Amino acid sequence: MVTVIAGCEIAFWIFLGLGLIARYLLRWRGISRTLLLCVPLVDVVLLVATVIDLSHGASANITHGLAAAYLGFSIMFGHSMMRWADQRFAHRFANGPTPWKPPRSGPDRVRYEWREWAKCVGACAIACAVMGALIFVVSTPDRTTALWQGMIPRLGMVTGVWLLWPLTTSGKKKVDA
From the CA atom positions of the chain, what is the Rg in Å? Predict the structure, then answer.
């Protein structure tokens, strides 16, 4: 499963990169659209591989939980990651406008951080729902302990740390070198 997760992460960036190359350097709009539509299909491949592995008798472990987390975070952050890459690629190779940057401070920064945290909560909720479905499919508590006792609480910690991080760093001034 670790290999499948790594392969899906690599495939995500390959499809994204090829899609942007086709769009901006080669001006192949149709092929670009097709390649960029393949990006979310990587998530489907990962989910199917996870279900197949568990349905063939594997006990759920942290890698199955990571697959669920990857899926959740990809769903919630994938679009913004694609937009981030698209803006930078267009700026660098197609004379596009300067890429958007998040606000540095003030109320706009607070709104931005709350939006990002809400996406994290959504990603963890999706991951937990996927793990719940996997637990239901396996239907053997002994084979799914790593999910409901290991990964689900860890995702709760991720949301807590994500919430606390901006609060602990917001009062510190950044020193530019």
Answer: 19
b/e per residue 12-47 (b: at least 16 CB within 10 A):
beebbebbbbbbbeeeeeeebeebbebbeebbeebb
Render pLDDT for 4-29 as a digit per residue (tens, 0 to 9).
989 998 999 999 999 999 999 999 99
- In angstroms, rounded to a whole number, what is the distance separating the alpha carbons of residues 164 and 146? 26
Domain boundaries, the chain: 2-169
Measure the CA–CA gap between 80 and 93, rounded to whole angstroms. 20
The answer to whether residues 99 and 91 touch, using CB atoms and an 8 Å cutoff, is yes
- Core vs surface per residue 94-118: b (16+ CB within 10 A) or e: eeeeeeeeeeeeeeeeeeebeeeee
pTM: 0.82
According to DSSP, residue 23 is labeled: I
The CA distance from 144 to 138, in Å, is 7
Average the pLDDT over 103-113 and give the result: 88
Q: What is the pLDDT of residues 136-171, one digit of tens each?
A: 888 787 888 888 888 899 999 999 999 887 666 555
Confidence at 97, pLDDT banded by 50, 70, 90: very high
